[in-house]
Amino acid sequence: MTIKDANRYNVIVTRSAAILFLLGLLTGIYVTMVATGKIEGNIGASLAAHLNGIIGAMILLSLILILPGIKYGHGYKRAMILMFIISNYANWLITLIKSFLQVEGIAIVYNSLSNNIIHVALVILVVIPALTGGTMWAFGIGARQHQVNNVAEDHL
Questions:
Q1: DSSP string of 47-65?
Q2: In whole angstroms, what is the distance from residue 94 CA to residue 27 CA?
Q3: Measured distance CA(46)–CA(42) in Å, rounded
Q4: DSSP category for residue 111
Q5: What is residue 142's predicted lDDT score, i.e. its pLDDT?
Q6: What is the rounded CA–CA span in Å between residue 129 and residue 125?
Q7: Backbone CA torsion sign across 5, 11, 12, 13
Q8: What is the pLDDT of residues 105-115, one digit of tens each?
Q9: What is residue 48's predicted lDDT score, i.e. its pLDDT?
Q10: Which range (1-5, 9-13, 19-23, 142-146) has the least confidence?
């Protein structure tokens, strides 16, 4: 990975993390409104959305640290970053919508279209991308041997 690629990834991931962090913080305002009864919503889902935004931002920031150690090329890294951005933003947004709709969304339920839409959205936009990104991360760890040798030779 070139320095230009690394810098571009850092900007994209850092900006995505900062925006998600801000969205998570702003969701805290919604949490207080639900908790005080000013608006209707599920308090558990609203708290989860708040935390999903904040923790999701930290997960995105961790990508910056591990990208240099991923042994695959530019396209692989870009796909892995995309999987994590999609899954973390979707996790925040869908959980927030769950709170508004006051549905669980963890399984298909007879006669609950809103619950079933949430469930399918969670599977497609959160579970699948998160598992894909996590698998890419787990199996991509390890520097390319020839890159390590070249770096070592350059410093000798």
A1: HHHHHHHHHHHHHHHHHHH
A2: 13
A3: 6
A4: T
A5: 85
A6: 6
A7: positive
A8: 999 999 999 99
A9: 98
A10: 142-146
Q: Which residue has the tokens 């890294």?
A: 77
Q: From residue 83, give the alpha-carbon distance in Å to each of 21, 79, 91, 133.
A: 18, 6, 12, 5
| The residue count for the chain | 156
Calculate helix-pair angle for 113-122, 74-101, nearest 10 degrees.
160
Closest CA to 59 of 6, 95, 14, 125: 14
Give the pLDDT score at 153.
Answer: 44
Owner of token pair 């708290």: 47
The CA dihedral of 99, 100, 101, 104, to the nearest 10 degrees, is 0
Q: Is 108 left (phi over 0), alpha (psi -120 to 50) or beta?
A: beta
The pLDDT value given to residue 3: 77
Q: Tens of pLDDT along 13-58?
A: 999 999 999 999 999 999 999 999 999 999 999 999 999 999 999 9
pLDDT at 147 over 80: no
Both tokens of residue 47? 């708290």
Half-sphere exposure of 39 (CA within 13 A, CB side): 12
Distance CA 107, CA 99 (A): 16
First to last CA, the chain: 21
